Amino acid sequence: MTAYDWRWKVAYDDAPDASARFVTANEIHIPTGEPVRFKLNSADVIHTFWVPRLAGKTQAIPGQTNEQWLQADVPGVYRGQCSQFCGAQHAHMAFEVIAESRANFAAWFAQQARAPDMPNDTAVTTGKSALPRSGKLHRACEDGYRQSITRASACDIWSPPSCSC
Q1: Which DSSP helix (H) or strand (E) runs through 151?
Q2: Is 135 left (phi over 0), alpha (psi -120 to 50) or beta?
Q3: Using an 8 Å Cβ cutoff, are 12 and 19 in contact?
Q4: Is-contact 85 118, C-beta < 8 A?
Q5: Angle at 50 between CA 1 and CA 25, to 5 degrees
Q6: β-strand pairing of 76-82 with 94-100
Q7: How far apart are CA 98 and CA 75, in angstroms?
Q8: Which residues of the chain does CATH 2.60.40.420 include?
Q9: From the centroid of its chain, how far is CA 77?
Q10: Rounded distance, CA 37 to CA 50, Å?
Q11: What's the CA gap between 28 and 8, in Å, rounded?
Q12: 139: how many CB neighbours lie within 10 A of its CB?
């Protein structure tokens, strides 16, 4: 997980098949009843990863990787928050941990990892063809067609231009 001013990038990058890896923003899914390890770092300033109902606080520090283990034994949505004041938009550093059964987690993971269907809506295809053939907007939209919307959002909207997702 990487903290940015003022959001969290969650990379599900431990799948053996590289094509099954993906990124979300501010939303973490975990299976219930299993410990899950998070590797935390920051892209800018010190942030603190905290899910009060599941674990204590762990800092995300630029240039350093820290670990935090979470385990939710009861399905549900657990609110998390950066508890280190990190600037004017600090309140936007909230996130959710969604704990679900192993079967529901596996289904969610498979859905996120697969490429989305190409839209066949006329307005969508017309809009896509009207975009300029250069610039970030076009690349973001193109990525959106090759990747899931979550991945395009996290990589192209939530990350700084220098980020490589």
Answers
A1: helix 149-152
A2: left
A3: no
A4: no
A5: 35
A6: antiparallel
A7: 8
A8: 2-114
A9: 16
A10: 14
A11: 10
A12: 14
Strand partners, 40: 66
Can you read off the two tokens belonging to residue 128?
A: 């896509």
- pLDDT, one tens digit per residue, over 17-60 is 887 888 888 999 999 999 999 999 999 999 999 999 999 999 99
Q: Scanning the structure block, which residue is given the tokens 């969604």?
A: 98
Any idea which residue has 């770092």 for tokens? 41
**Summary mean pLDDT of the chain:** 80
Measure the CA–CA gap between 52 and 41, rounded to whole angstroms: 19
Q: Does domain 2-114 sit in CATH 2.60.40.420?
A: yes
Strand 2-4 and strand 7-12: the pairing is: antiparallel
